[in-house]
Amino acid sequence: MNSNPIIECRDLHTYYGASHILHGVDFYVRGGEAVGLMGRNGMGKTTLIRSLVGHVPPRRGEVKINGRIMTRAAPHLIARQGIAYVPEGRGIFANLTVKENLIMAARPAPGGRRDWTYERILEIFPRLAERLTHGGQQLSGGEQQMLSIGRALMTNPVLLLLDEATEGLAPLIAQEIWRIIRTIRESGIAAIIVDKNFAAVSALTDRNVILVKGRVVFEGTGNELRAQPELLHQHLGI
After folding, report:
1. What is the pLDDT of residue 237?
2. Does pTM top 0.85 for this prediction?
3. I need a labelling partner for 7 at 20 to 30 A (CA). Which of 13, 33, 115, 188 fits?
4. Are 183 and 121 in contact (CB under 8 A)?
5. Is residue 52 within a helix (H) or strand (E), and if so which, with residue range?
6. Whole-angstrom distance, CA of residue 69 vs CA of residue 67
C-alpha cells in the first residue's frame, strides 16, 4: 500500500440548495487501499463521493488528488487523474450495446499503463461476453452493474468508487459482484466501497468510515468496528 493519498478532502462542507449535507468531513484513500464508506440512508455517503469527483461542488473545504488541489474541478478532469466512478443506479448507456459501452470508455492510465484490456474484462465478466450485442436496456440489474464496473475498469483507474455496489441485486448475483470486487482489489486498485452488507464490505476493506448526518463518527478497521457492537447497532442497524 502506498502511504500517499490518491484522494483526500479536508473540512468539506457541501450543500444541496439551502440544505447543509456535509459538515466538515475529513476523508482520504491511499494508493492500493480499500475504504468502506458506511452509514444509514441519507447520511451523506453519496454526497461525499459526488463532492470528491466533482459532481457536486463543495461550498467550503479542499479536495486534493495525487497531492494537487482539485476542489470544484470538472468531473472529466478528475476522471483523467485515474478516478473511476460507478454510481448508484449504474449509469450505463441504455442505447449502446455492451461492447460499445466498454469500448467507448477505453483509455490508458495516466502513466500510459493498460492493465485492463477489453479481453481481460470479458474474462472476468463472462456474462458480458455472452451479451456483447445486447443493448444496455436489455440487461438484468446484475448484468448492468457488471457492465458499469467493467466500463470503469476500461479507464485503467488507480481508484474505483463503488456507490451501492450490490443494491437491489439477487443474493447469487450479489455474491458474483463481491467476487469480482475481490479480484479488482487483488489487482492493486484502490477503492471506496458503499454497500449495506457490512460483512461483505469489511471483509474487503482496510479501513471503514461511518457517516452520520454528514459527519464522521467512526474510522477504523473492520475488527475495531466489530469490537463495538453498540456502534454497529446504532449507526448501521446491525
Report:
1. 87
2. yes
3. 115
4. no
5. helix 45-52
6. 7
Identify whether the C-beta of residue 162 lies closer than 8 Å to the C-beta of residue 181. yes
Distance CA 127, CA 143 (A): 7
DSSP 59: S
Classify 27 as helix, strand or coil. Answer: strand
Average pLDDT, the chain: 94
136 close to 94: Cβ distance less than 8 angstroms: yes
- Cross-strand bridge partners of residue 66: none
Give DSSP secondary structure letters for 134-197.
SBGGGS-HHHHHHHHHHHHHTT--SEEEEESTTTT--HHHHHHHHHHHHHHHHTT-EEEEE-S-
Q: Quick: pLDDT tens for 112-128.
A: 889 999 999 999 999 99
Q: Summarize pLDDT for 73-89 with one digit per residue, the tens.
A: 999 999 999 999 999 88
Distances (CA, A) of 85 to 76, 79, 92, 116, 156: 11, 8, 12, 16, 12
The answer to whether 217 and 37 are in contact (CB under 8 A) is no
